């Protein structure tokens, strides 16, 4: 008996990008469908960006991560067990050969599908996850995994209700028995305090302590950032504690690493300021302690 594909499941589909009323569709059937291939080719042949957007908006779309009663995260009825990823060329200008990129992606054992985006200028795909209830935490870990490979994926796919318009790829990659992605990015829950009650370590005391640690880091040239996940969590912790004024602190500790890039550090720090990931300044002090830096 032929083994069933993990892609052989029901998800929601919408008649267009503007529609909010879902119907059910089989994901595997959708991925193999050529029904709107001619419309996709028209989009790929169109140079006018406005016309392109207009044509795309008329295509049907799916929510690969599940079945929904409406098109929003709160209306999720059943998670499909998949996270989608989207790789756009404008976010990966350092990549010159996209055919090599596709092969690189297909070597990731957790990738179940990878095909051309509707524009033909990027790829999108599907990865099964081990804990659907931790969709966002899985995505944060996936973001790091791709970055370690030198690939930037669209952060919008963190949204469980994220739409995926119809596309077609004659040479799409399928792995019907892909492994589940098990990694999640563990984040700290920041302590909350009753009204009119504040922690004894006020901002000024924390600021002084951080600066003393930074002096030791600079003097002894100690790289506490380690891998990307550590660097990420420290950056979020500093952004949450100090906001924009912490940017210089983060540059000072990041530039110890051989991997330091000023523009990349600036870009990511700006993003963390907006997103407010749940790391407290205790994360910074934790990694200082691991490196025997005690202020």
Task: Describe what this molecule looks like in 3D.
The protein is α+β, with helices and mostly antiparallel strands and 295 residues long. The chain folds into 2 domains: 10-174, no CATH class; 203-290, no CATH class. The protein has helices at 27-32, 37-45, 49-57, 98-106, 135-148, 203-220, 228-242, 247-254, 262-275, 282-290, and strands at 10-14, 23-26, 61-63, 66-68, 76-79, 82-88, 113-116, 122-128, 164-165, 173-174. Strand 4 and strand 5 form a beta hairpin. The chain is elongated and about 65 Å long. Residues 188-203 have low confidence and may be disordered.
In short:
The protein is of the alpha+beta class. Helices cover 38% and strands 14% of the residues. The termini are far apart.
> Tell me, what's the shape?
elongated
Rounded Rg: 22 Å
Ends apart, CA distance between termini: 65 Å
Query: Using DSSP, what is the number of strands?
Result: 10
Strand fraction: 5-15%
User: Can you give the helix content as a percent range?
Assistant: 25-40%
User: Largest sheet, if any?
Assistant: 4 strands, antiparallel
Give, in spatial order, the strands making up the sheet with the most strands: 2-1-3-9
Count of alpha/pi helices: 10
* Overall tally of structural domains: 2
Order of helices and strands: EEHHHEEEEHEEHEEHHHHH
Low-pLDDT segments: 188-203
> What's the overall average pLDDT, rounded?
87
Kindly name the structural category: alpha+beta
């Amino acid at each position: 008996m032929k083994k069933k594909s993990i892609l052989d499941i029901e998800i929601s589909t919408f008649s267009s990008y503007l529609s909010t009323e879902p119907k059910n569709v089989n994901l595997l059937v959708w991925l193999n469908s050529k029904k709107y291939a001619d419309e996709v080719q028209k989009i790929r042949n169109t140079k006018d960006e406005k016309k392109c957007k207009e044509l795309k908006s008329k295509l049907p779309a799916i929510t690969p991560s599940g079945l929904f009663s409406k098109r929003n995260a709160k209306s999720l009825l059943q998670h499909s067990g998949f996270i989608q990823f989207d790789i756009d060329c404008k976010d990966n200008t350092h990549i010159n050969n996209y055919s090599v990129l596709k092969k690189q992606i297909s070597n990731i054992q957790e990738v179940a599908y990878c095909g051309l985006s509707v524009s033909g200028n990027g790829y999108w795909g599907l990865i099964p996850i081990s804990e659907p209830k931790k969709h966002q935490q899985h995505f944060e870990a996936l973001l790091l995994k791709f970055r370690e490979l030198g690939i930037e994926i669209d952060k919008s796919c963190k949204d469980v209700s994220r739409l995926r318009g119809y596309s077609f790829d004659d040479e799409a990659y399928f792995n019907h028995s892909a492994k589940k992605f098990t990694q999640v990015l563990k984040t700290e829950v920041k302590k909350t305090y009753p009204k009119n009650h504040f922690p004894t370590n006020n901002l000024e005391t924390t600021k002084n302590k951080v600066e003393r640690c930074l002096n030791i880091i600079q003097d002894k040239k100690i790289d506490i950032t380690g891998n990307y996940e550590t660097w990420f969590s420290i950056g979020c912790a500093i952004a949450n504690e100090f906001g924009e004024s912490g940017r210089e602190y983060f540059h000072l500790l990041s530039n110890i690493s051989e991997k330091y890039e000023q523009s990349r550090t600036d870009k990511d720090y700006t993003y963390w300021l907006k997103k407010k990931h749940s790391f407290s300044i205790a994360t910074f002090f934790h990694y200082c302690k691991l490196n025997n830096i005690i202020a």
